[in-house]
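Hey, I'm writing a tutorial for new members on how sequence and structure tokens pair up, and I'd like a real worked example in the thread rather than a made-up one. If someone can provide the structure for the chain below, I'll link this post from the tutorial.
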Amino acid sequence: MPSGSSTSGVGRVIAGRYLLLNRLGSGGMGHVWLAHDQRLACEVALKEIVFRDPAEADEREARVARARAEARHAAGLRGHPHVVTVHDVLEHEGLPWIVMEYVAGAVNLRDLIDRHGPPAPAECARIGLAVLDALTAGHERGVMHRDVKPANILLAPDRSGSPYGRVLLADYGISVQPDAGETRYTLASVLVGTAGYLAPERVTGGAPSPATDLFSLGCTLYHAVEGRGPFDRESHLAQVTAVVMEEPRPAARAGALGPVVRALLEKDPARRMSAAEAEAALSRIVVPEVDAYARTRTDLGSQPHWGGAPLGLPDGPGRTRARVLHAVLAGLLGLAVAGAGVWYAVARESDRPGGSGRPYGDAVGLGEPLKGGDCVLADWPGTSAFRGTPRLRLDPSCREQAPDGQVMAFVAAASAAEARREGPAACEERTAGVRERLADVRSFAVVPSEAGFEAAGRRTACLVLGAHGPVFGPLGEYRKAGSAFADTATMQRRDCLDVRSRRDARLVSCAERHDEQVLGFTRLGADVTLTEARTESDTVCAREVPPRDYGFDPSVYTAGSWTSEGSWKNGTHFVVCTVRRQNGGTMEGDEP
């Protein structure tokens, strides 16, 4: 038996609390178990660190201490929507165990590619954008991941049932972690990583930095879209040599993702694409820029339409201003993409010869093709939304009629049949970025009819619609700085707001002074009234989406919340959870 290894097995209780149910996997440095937390009555994943030879056992104390330090860093990212949460590090019978979130139904990206082949570039970009968001959150706290690779990216079902809708970065910053079947390349200087995914400056002795993680992300995106790593060679030594001395093989399948990958694989870290540049480039692939279009005009100086109910909460003790948000999704609740799914409208009566030739058929009813940024009203044929084909109407103001959604992207096709076959899934990919930043929306594909294919510009229109009601205004990049919010439905992660009164919250640049940031979304019980919500939601948000989990000093910042009539009318009871200064002062970008 290897030195220091554990005889633990199914049925054993670790630290008097965790009942081992079955082994999920094993790697170069230990085992991963599914366990039942007997105290909290839930399932968790346990990593057992195994020392296989006397030399490793001699380093036990230092390595356990390092595991604890790294786990504390990872725990600082608890609640991030794209990070597997680390709950604790403990010792049991002299061996370290790491207690983590158990992600049911998850498959790592490497295995998924091996089974089904590389995903489309847009899907790879969506995955990359989520991983980049996780890395950036760590980098802002001074934590480097150091082992970004396909095997450490988990794809899991989201709340809508989409099998790979949730993207999670695993093994966050823990250098003594069990591996996923890949050999690590480790030197005496405690260089941690995987051959073929290490940045050149790390191989040559440089310190880990955000740029080194971005290089590994570039390798991972290359692998995702090409089906193999950019520096795959016959041996680990050859891979490491190639990272330093050779250029990656040209990418044949990357398409629009190619320039991003090449920029991330720049060997000189000073010339490598930055995180902000990568985010912008990946976002353009996930949600492509649409044709030039005179976007909806809004009167930025006007008061928003509040539907007769204030968007906000009564003033509390010490509160000098009302509060609003920068939406950073609370993934632990999985509510940011609640009900996210893909639906499409095809008017079949127009497919037959002699049909009307309207772009999307008689049932949809539009006489002109949709344009980027168009806000729409959807009238469904029955009593339930997202069943059947809706009749669409435009809301030119994108505000006055409380639009149900907005055109966010397009998918080109060679034929109407191809549009029907591929448009809905492609629209789900193209709208994934904006949907993940909102609380309660769905993807919807408006597919051209056979007779109207040319009139529709040979492309499917990708909408984002409110899952349970209107969205009350522009979404995503169609919102303008200075514009007022009409409802919490359009509030999304990374928004920063200037709050002028309880009835007037406006979108501003996060580089400017602002009053609040959103840390996520939660929902209250069906029996909670809107009036009750306005007194209870601060407390609920402090418990469910605590600012300290996002790096905010609890002695300076406190939780806040916003409610609106819309989410009570549609029965979802969504609450926007925010962070603000305790003294009511403004935030100028110095927060985590």
